[in-house]
Amino acid sequence: MVTRTIDGLEQDQPLRKSLDPDTAIKIQDFIDRLQNLKPPFEMILDDVTGNSYIENPEAPAKDSQLTTTNYTRTRQQNIQLGLVAEDDEGILEEDEGEGEGADDLKQEVLSFQSNCGKCNSPLETHMKLVNIPHFKEVVIMASHCESCGDRSNEVKAGGGIEPQGTEITLNITDPIDLNRDVLKSETCTLKIPSLEFELCSGTLGGKFTTLEGLLTDVKGQLSQINTFKLGDSSQPSDNVKMKEFLEKLDKVCFVK
Asked: Which of 80, 66, 95 lies closest to 166 in space, CA to CA?
């Protein structure tokens, strides 16, 4: 999750440096701080749809490090989610019950044709309903491009939008916390208060992985996508900052 966050911050940095150098410097300074991130720190998932989740290793007992807060969405949030029209005070009712064959669908891996996001070659995307214990069903979509080797996966909430949004706060105090499963929906906002960081909704897309996996994704995408920061055409100061960031991110991933 952190890895994808950095990817989002870094991807427009070359353009930002030419149009708004002051803002680019501030963003790079924050990325440098993110590279130093290691336990203990606090992570907050704020999801107005209520479809995000962090694994509880003590389940079914209460997680001593995790706080979950349910809150009522504002009217504006309901409008943004498409639950109500701007001139309608009501909320759409969820359809109850499941259609015939739902049980069979849960056991089946569905496939459909699509195109690679990197090279645009035709590929097959696989989709399956997965039940996460103590939470709900999600739809996991995965694809592998045989032309360029790119692999991708995305997670979508399997059920409807929850009546209330959910804010989950996790205090990370031990390296083993990095092994926790994390489900982040595409509508979730990610915050790391110790870094004064907040990732806006929709930036990362849906993701079901471990916390360490999110950090690793950040590093991998930074190395592959941000060639302007690491290549021969980059400015010396940018090159040093990016390499320092990747080193600090390594320390977070491996808790050095």
From this structure: 66
Q: Tokens representing 88?
A: 């309608």
Instruction: Bin 120: left if φ > 0, else alpha if -120 < ψ < 50, else beta.
Output: left
Show Cβ contacts of residue 229 under 8 Å, excluding neighbours closer than 6 positions.
Answer: 10, 13, 14, 222, 238, 239, 241, 242
pLDDT of 197 > 50? The answer is: yes
Q: How does pLDDT run across 23-64, given as a tens digit for each residue?
A: 999 999 998 888 888 888 898 999 998 888 887 777 546 688
Q: Go through 88-97 and write b for each residue having 16 or more CB atoms within 10 A of its CB, e for each that does not.
A: eeeeeeeeee
- Under 8 Å between Cβ of 45 and 199: no
Q: Which two tokens stand for residue 49?
A: 């749809």
In degrees, rounded to 5, the angle at the alpha carbon of residue 219 between the alpha carbons of residues 154 and 228 is 110
CA 75 from chain center: how many Å?
Answer: 25
**Separation CA 219–CA 251 (nearest Å):** 11
Nearest to 59 by CA among 168, 132, 134, 130: 134
Higher pLDDT, 16 or 88: 16
207: nearest Cα among 30, 31, 47: 47
Q: How much is the pLDDT for 89? A: 54
Distance CA 215, CA 205 (A): 15
> Strand, helix or coil at 134?
coil
Place of tokens 């004064």: 196
Here the tokens at position 244 are 């320092």
